[in-house]
Structure formats: C-alpha cells, structure tokens
Design the sequence.
C-alpha cells in the first residue's frame, strides 16, 4: 500500500515541469493519436485518388466497356491505338491553341500586375474588373461567349460599330473556333494569374524601388531587375499550371461547341470514349497518357527550377 | 508632352481597353436578358438597349422553367456539407502532420503531396467506377464525397497556419491535462479562423462553379446544381437568347454580390491558395 502511494507521489511531482515518463499504454495511445486524426483524410485520399489510378492502370490493359462483368486482357493494344490512330492523337494539336493562349495570358497578366502595383487611379476598380471573370461559373461564361460569337451577336455588333461588316461564323471553322475558344480561356483565367503576380510583386519590399529610383532606374529597369527576379517562383508555378491546364481543357469547349468543328480536347475525347462509347479500357489508356505527360512536365519544371517553397514538413 | 505623360496615357488606355473587353460581353448579356422575344426578333444588333429596362419576364421564365430554385437548394446543400467536411478534414490533417512525429509520416506527407499533382479530370474514368460501386452515383453524395476527398490546397493552407501557432500553447494545455483532441478543438481550431475563412472562400467558389463533377455524377433532372441546370437551358431555349441570358445572369449575380462584399479576403485567399 505505502509502496504504491509513494510511487504515485513520486510520479506526480516531476510531472509538473516534465511530462510523466510514458507507460507502455500511454505510449501506444500516443502513437495512435495522429492516426485518429488522419484516418478519414487518408481513407478519402486513397479511395478517390490512389485507388482510381491503380484501377485505371489495370483497365488500360483490357478491352473493358465499363459495364459488363467480362473484361479481357489486351496487352498494350490500347496504348498502341492512342498513339497510332490519327483521330485520337489529333486532340493534342488542339492543346497547342490553349498553350499559345497561356503565353498571351501570362504576358498580359504580368503587364497589368506590374502597372497596377504602382500608383494608378481607380486601382481597386481595375483590379476587381480584371479578376472577376475568374470567379464566374463556367457554364455562364460558355453562354455569354456563345452569344458573343453568334451571328449578329456581341462581337459582330461591336465590329459593325467600327464599320467592319462581317458575316464570319466565328465558331464555324476549326482554326477560328479554336482561336475563339482559346480567347475565352484567356478572358476567364487572366485574373487568376494577375492576382498571383500582384501578390508576389507586393511582397517585394518598397524600399527596393525607392533605392532604384534614386539610382536613376526607370520602370523597365525596375521591372527587369527587381520585379522579375522577385516573382520567379510564382512565374514558374504559373507556367506549369498553364501547361497542365492546356492539356486538360474541358469545360468551355464542351459547353460551347460540344467538341464539334475540330475543337475536341483530350478530356472531352476521354469523357466521350468512356461514358458515351463505353470504351473504358481505351479511355483509361488515354487518361494514363495524359497523366504521365502532366507528371513529366511537373518533374521537368521541378528539375529546372528547384522550388524551395514546397516543403510540407 | 513629356515621355512620362505619354506612358501614363498609354497605361490608362490599356486599362480602359481591358475593362471594356471584360465588361462588354457581360453587359450585353444583361441587356439581352431584359429584352422581349419580339424585340429579339426585330432588333438588328446585340448592343441595342432594351425598350423596357424593368422587363423581368425572362427571369421568371428562367427561374421557374429552369428549376433554378431546386438547383440553388442542391448547390447550397453540397456547399454546406462539403465545405464543412473540407475544413474539418483539412485542419485535422494539418494538425496531425505538423504536431506529431510518427512512423510513416514521410510516406503520408508524400501521398498528400503527390495527389496534388494529379489533375482530377484525368482519373475520372476510374473514379466513376468507385463512386458507382458505393451506390453514390446520381445522388448528392457523389459530389460531396469527391469535393471532400481531394482537396490538397486546403490542407496546405491549414498547414501553413498551424505552423505559425506556437507549440508552447499546446504544451501548456497538455500540462493542464488536455489530450490531443481537446487541444485541437479548444486551441488549434479556434486559432485557425483566418485559414478557415480562406478555405471557405476558395472552396466555396470552386464548388459553386464546378460543372464537371455534377455533370458526370448527377444526370437526374431533379438533381441539378446551378451549373448543370443552366447547361440544360441549351436544349429547350436554344434559340431564345433572352431566356438563356437571364439564366446566366441569375447564376452570376450571387458571385458578384459575394465578390463585392468580400473583395479583399478573396484576393488574399486565392494568392494563398494557389502559391502552394
């Protein structure tokens, strides 16, 4: 009896400054605690991200239609098809339009972020106007621009104000349709890049500009030597987001043209293959190819520009 | 005229041009939504003003025939549950990763990090089968589960904030006898308010605007969210631009109101959310 009380007393006293030496049971419990917090997130992560990827790899080697219980292994046949059937591979060229559009978008965003980080009248108004499209629902944007490119719609009306009479079917030929759609994506996503750049520019200490101005640097010099290096991490992030974004375009062309007149993108094609033509096996192979390309791009970017900001632990 | 004034003039000119490019398509749709069917047939250009600026007839049609009420309700339910879940899951994950050392921690972190590199659209073919096997297909649960399950950005936002909370706070609470859950609930979570606000905004806008997931997983007519309900306008109103425009304005309006009232937080949220 005395022995136990004494032991307890001994344990309690040092417990105040330093936690009690853990017994086996508390050690086990402590070891479990983080897992109690992580079990739901991990379960969701594995169920909805990793299990699909694993399944997709398995499907991609079969001729499964997504419904029937039967699936036959076909080896690499699906992959051969993705790379050799010209109509399947063609969709990659469409990404080129969006890739070109992202170059325009990044340059414009950089320009507006730079001028709006200096003193400009109605600055907040312009900031708001440039950013707002990014927040708008994609379907609404699709409709707004369907009307914009309509015969006698917004664009034709504006052009006729300037005396340009067109009966151009903007969404009528592959080149003009893809250019128009890529233009919509610049309209939509410019704001996000703009705000990212603006945030990065504003985190550059103001004294740097003052010092530069004293040294006689003009705006271009300030941009070249202060802003450009200061926003490099964000710039590389934007580039990689743009590349993977250009490869996985879906919403705007699907809503506006449904992929008609040569505007079908990789994701529209995959969705159609899987859910309309029940070619789950082929669609999986296509999706794996896209995923690998995106991972490759990310990897190359990380190699070229080691990003010290990505340290989760 | 010095060089500086010319530059200034050009700067303003470019800003005004950008403003026109952004606003013109939207303003025209607003004008179109106020026109009557007859006006649409008669008038030549999209830029003409409607005869009656208070003609809300198309809005009534769009709201009723487009079943916008049920769309807004469904969207609200999905928003509420998935945002609540995201906040809970994100903050718990961040707390566990930042405050504990445990076996396989590196692996867990790597799993979350790598998932951020996988664009959701690429895995949908197989995700579909999994959602289907849970019997969640064509129910509100499909988007809710998917929105909660894949949000790495919010975990990252929370992580940055948890890191800024001094560990001494946890320690003193532990000495008072608090266990890990009490510390999370009473200390960490309340201090995460700014991060929570950011996540709520960023996630809210993403979920409100998402088209892909509800389109794939909830084909039933009565399960429309605002994007899919609006998308369905394409069929019945294909030639009625005045009704489609009214529908589009109805969908954009809540975003505009939220944006105007929360501007500063929204900018900050997106800067934080995207520069992972």
Sequence:
């Amino acid at each position: 009896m005395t022995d136990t009380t004494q032991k307890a007393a001994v344990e309690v006293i040092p417990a105040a400054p330093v936690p009690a030496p853990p017994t086996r049971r508390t050690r086990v419990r402590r070891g479990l605690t983080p897992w109690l917090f992580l079990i739901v997130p991990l379960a969701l992560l594995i169920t909805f991200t990793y299990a699909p990827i694993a399944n997709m790899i398995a499907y991609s080697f079969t001729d499964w239609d997504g419904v029937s219980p039967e699936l036959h292994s076909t080896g690499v046949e699906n992959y051969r098809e993705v790379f050799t059937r010209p109509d399947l591979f063609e969709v990659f060229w469409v990404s080129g339009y969006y890739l070109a559009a992202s170059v325009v978008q990044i340059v414009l965003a950089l320009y507006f972020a730079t001028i709006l980080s200096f003193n400009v009248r109605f600055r907040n108004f312009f900031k708001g106007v440039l950013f707002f499209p990014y927040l708008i629902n994609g379907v609404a944007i699709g409709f707004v621009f369907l009307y914009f490119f309509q015969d006698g719609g917004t664009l034709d009306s504006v052009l006729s104000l300037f005396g340009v009479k067109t009966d151009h079917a903007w969404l009528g030929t592959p080149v003009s349709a893809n250019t128009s759609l890529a233009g919509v994506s610049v309209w939509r996503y410019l704001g996000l890049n703009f705000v990212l750049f603006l945030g990065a520019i504003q985190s550059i200490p103001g004294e740097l500009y003052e010092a530069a101005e004293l040294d006689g640097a003009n705006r271009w010099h300030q941009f070249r030597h202060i802003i450009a290096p200061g926003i490099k991490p964000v710039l590389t992030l934007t580039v990689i987001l743009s590349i993977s974004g250009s490869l996985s375009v879906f919403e705007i062309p699907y809503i506006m043209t449904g992929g008609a007149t040569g505007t079908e993108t990789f994701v529209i094609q995959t969705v159609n293959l899987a859910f309309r033509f029940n070619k789950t096996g082929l669609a999986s192979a296509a999706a794996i190819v896209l995923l690998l390309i995106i991972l490759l791009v990310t990897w190359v970017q990380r190699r070229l520009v080691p990003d010290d900001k990505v340290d989760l632990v | 005229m010095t060089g500086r004034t010319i530059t200034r003039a050009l700067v303003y000119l470019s800003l005004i041009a950008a403003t026109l490019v952004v606003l013109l398509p939207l303003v025209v749709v607003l004008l179109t939504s106020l026109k009557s069917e007859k006006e649409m047939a008669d008038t030549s250009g999209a830029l003409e003003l409607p005869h009656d600026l208070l003609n809300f007839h198309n809005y009534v049609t769009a709201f009723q025939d487009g079943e916008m009420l049920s769309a807004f309700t469904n969207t609200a339910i999905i928003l509420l549950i998935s945002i609540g879940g995201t906040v809970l899951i994100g903050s718990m994950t961040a707390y566990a990763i930042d405050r504990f050392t445990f076996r396989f921690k590196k692996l867990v972190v790597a799993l979350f990090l790598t998932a951020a590199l996988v664009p959701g659209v690429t895995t949908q073919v197989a995700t579909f089968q999994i959602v289907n096997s849970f019997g969640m297909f064509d129910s509100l649960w499909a988007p809710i589960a998917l929105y909660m399950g894949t949000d790495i950005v919010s975990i990252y936002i929370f992580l940055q904030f948890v890191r800024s909370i001094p560990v001494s706070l946890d320690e003193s609470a532990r000495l008072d006898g608090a266990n890990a859950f009490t510390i999370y609930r009473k200390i960490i979570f309340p201090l995460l308010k700014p991060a929570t606000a950011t996540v709520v905004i960023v996630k809210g806008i993403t979920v409100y605007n998402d088209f892909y997931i509800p389109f794939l997983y909830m084909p039933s007519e009565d399960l429309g969210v605002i994007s899919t309900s609006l998308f369905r306008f394409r069929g019945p109103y294909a030639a009625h631009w005045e009704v489609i425009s009214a529908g589009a304005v109805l969908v954009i309006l809540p975003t505009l109101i939220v944006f105007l009232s929360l501007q500063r937080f929204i900018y900050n949220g997106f800067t934080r959310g995207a520069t992972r």
